From TrEMBL:
The lineage of its organism: Archaea, Methanobacteriati, Methanobacteriota, Stenosarchaea group, Halobacteria. One of its GO terms (molecular function) is ATP binding. Pfam families: HATPase_c, HisKA, HisKA_7TM. Keywords: ATP-binding, Kinase, Membrane, Nucleotide-binding, Phosphoprotein, Transferase, Transmembrane, Transmembrane helix, Two-component regulatory system. Its EC number is 2.7.13.3. This is histidine kinase. It comes from Halobellus rarus. The chain crosses the membrane at residues 24-44, 56-74, 86-110, 122-143, 163-183, 195-216, 222-241. PANTHER family: HISTIDINE KINASE 1, TWO-COMPONENT HISTIDINE KINASE. InterPro entries: HATPase_C_sf (IPR036890), HATPase_dom (IPR003594), His_kinase_dom (IPR005467), HisK_dim/P_dom (IPR003661), HisK_dim/P_sf (IPR036097), HisKA_7TM (IPR031621), Sensor_HK_Regulatory (IPR050736), Sig_transdc_His_kin-like_C (IPR004358). The keyword Transmembrane applies. GO terms for biological process: phosphorelay signal transduction system.
């Protein structure tokens, strides 16, 4: 049956009314949900470890929730007067939310501007000035003019004036400063911050609606920022709270960080940590002890230093852990690895120097005491009976002490690190060194293949040869034959003799200061050799020559070059 002439128009009005009611309900629901979400998240802020971050986010939720609730009142109150009142309340609470937003962003990103008294005073002055204009708007209408409207539904329409746009421009500028702080942190920190990028992006989306409301009648001209804050809060506290906490901690340092829960399972880590421990890539929600046992062992043993091989070098990391607490209970910990390689190397060098000092003290108290006692006893006898024969042992005792002192000083000097080296002709230097100490019928044999150069300090390398040659003569006799040649591997050289050799059980001890098997030896010669080798960052070992004599192999590794 055909509709009456006015039936189509009536149906259109009904559809329009239904659309208006649905749109009205959507606006009320959106702001009511935002208010409830913000206020519902308030108790969860107590789980945030960092005090300033906790305080800033708490008040951001309070003001944003109050702002959204004021919008609900503005849309639902039955009288124009109440609608006007709630709108003004929303204006005041809304501009107030800028302060907690900046406070939160600054605290979360590790800045201190939110604690600057001058900044606080400036914000308060500007805030009070804007609020004063808003509250006195009925007198001057500088901020807005209100009038009843029925499209798209019945409500109090707000027509903004110039001061509104000035205040909004300032508020948006400050809000974008906060966004910049957060984005700068997310880009800088060595972790996956994509979920937080998305959440912060949700916070900024309502700005699009703000702009649309200002230019299009299809969108209500009202501020929507509280909806974005609610979405951010729900996302942080319901989905990504651990990541939210971790990024703040990671932003405080560029060091590797690993976060574990109370059961020792990996919850998060940054890229620097994965660079040190590639196995972390598959470790989320898995026990740390299974994927990075060395790190777990350091924590279990309450040790503080972790050694990690990095190619040909060793790096040292100080391992510290900071607990996460939720409601006063510890729920996990963040593990920070600070590179202390230089400090640890200095400590080791200091320990080595202290050990040398202890060696010197021991030598002085032990080795010098004997010749001193001999000299004193013989001197007393010479004084008593006037026999000068007693003075000859005194002279020998003093010569012995002079030799000990000279070699102790040499040992101290040779342990100093080498700053500059040059290419040294190994065969030529060996011959010059032999000429300084050779005596009797001892002879030097230079292998024809020793046509090489070594990057070394020539004076110390000569001291090395002289001490090895002297050691061979002292223990092998005046007719000993000393040989110098390259190692078969081509990574160093050897010095050997055809003497009695060194017993296998003594080969590790011969390089210790004071070790000697000779009544006339000082025990410093091979210790000096060892110090020279260490100063060059070479290696030396004592072994047996083919003739049965002593053989010393010095490995210079990449420093050894064939001509």
């Amino acid at each position: 049956m055909p509709l009456p002439a006015n039936g189509g128009a009536q149906q259109g009005r009904m559809l329009s009314l239904s659309y208006s009611s649905a749109l009205y309900g959507a606006y009320v629901f959106a702001f009511a949900a935002a208010a409830v979400a913000c206020l519902a998240m308030l108790p969860r802020t107590r789980h945030i470890e960092h005090e300033d971050t906790r305080r800033g986010l708490f008040w951001l939720l309070v003001t944003s929730g109050g702002w959204a609730a004021a919008h609900v009142g503005y849309l639902t109150m039955p009288t124009v007067g109440l609608q006007y009142t709630f709108y003004v309340i929303g204006l005041v609470v809304g501009i107030a939310s800028v302060g907690p937003w900046l406070y939160f962003c600054a605290a979360y990103t590790g800045r201190s501007v939110h604690r600057d008294p001058a900044v606080r005073r400036a914000f308060l002055v500007v805030f009070l000035a804007i609020v004063a204009v808003k509250l006195t708007n009925p007198v001057h209408n500088w901020y807005f003019v209100a009038e009843s409207a029925v499209v798209p539904f019945a409500y109090l329409e707000i027509n903004h004036r110039a001061f509104h746009w000035i205040a909004m421009g300032l508020a948006y500028s400050l809000a974008f400063v906060g966004f910049f702080m957060l984005f700068e942190l997310f880009v800088r920190v060595n972790s996956d911050t994509r979920p937080l990028f998305v959440l912060i992006g949700l916070t900024g989306i309502p700005v699009v609606l703000d702009v649309a409301g200002a230019v299009s009648p299809a969108v209500l001209d009202i501020t929507y920022s509280s909806i974005g804050v609610a979405a951010f809060a729900v996302g942080v506290f319901s989905l990504y709270f651990d990541r939210f906490q971790f990024v703040r901690v990671a932003g405080e340092t560029d060091d590797p960080i690993v976060v574990v829960d109370g059961g020792g399972k990996v919850r998060d880590y940054n890229r620097r940590a994965e660079g040190l421990f590639p196995s972390l890539a598959d470790s989320i929600d898995e026990p740390l002890a299974e994927f990075v046992p060395r790190l777990a062992d350091v924590l279990d043993r309450k040790k503080s230093i972790l050694e990690i091989e990095d190619g040909e070098t060793t790096r040292y990391y100080n391992v510290s852990s900071n607990p996460f607490t939720t409601g006063g209970a510890e729920t996990g910990q963040s593990i920070v690895l600070s590179d202390v390689t230089h400090r640890e190397q200095y400590r080791q060098e200091l320990e080595a120097k202290n050990e040398k000092l202890e060696q010197f003290a021991s030598i002085v108290s032990h080795d010098l005491r004997n010749p001193l006692q001999v000299a004193k006893g013989r001197t007393d006898l010479a004084i008593e009976d006037g026999n000068t024969e007693h003075l000859e042992p005194v002279v020998r005792a003093h010569e012995r002490m002079e030799q000990l002192i000279e070699e102790m000083l040499t040992l101290a000097r040779e342990g100093v690190s080498i700053d500059e080296t040059e290419r040294v002709d190994l065969a030529g230097l060996a011959r010059r060194s032999w000429g300084m100490i050779a005596g009797g019928q001892a002879s030097l044999s230079i292998d024809d293949d020793v046509d090489v150069t070594v990057s070394a300090d020539p004076e110390r390398l000569q001291q090395l040869f002289e001490n090895l040659f002297r050691n061979a003569i002292e223990h092998g006799g005046d007719d000993v034959v000393v040989s110098v040649g390259p190692l078969e591997e081509g990574d160093g050289f050897y010095v050997e003799d055809d003497g009695a050799g060194i017993p296998e059980e003594d080969r590790d001890e011969v390089f210790e200061a004071g070790y000697t098997t000779s009544d006339d030896g000082t025990g410093f010669g091979l210790a000096i050799v060892s110090e020279i080798v260490d100063a060059h960052e070479w290696e030396i070992r004592a072994t047996e020559a083919a003739s049965g004599g002593a053989r010393f192999e010095i490995r210079t590794a990449s420093e050894y070059a064939q001509e």
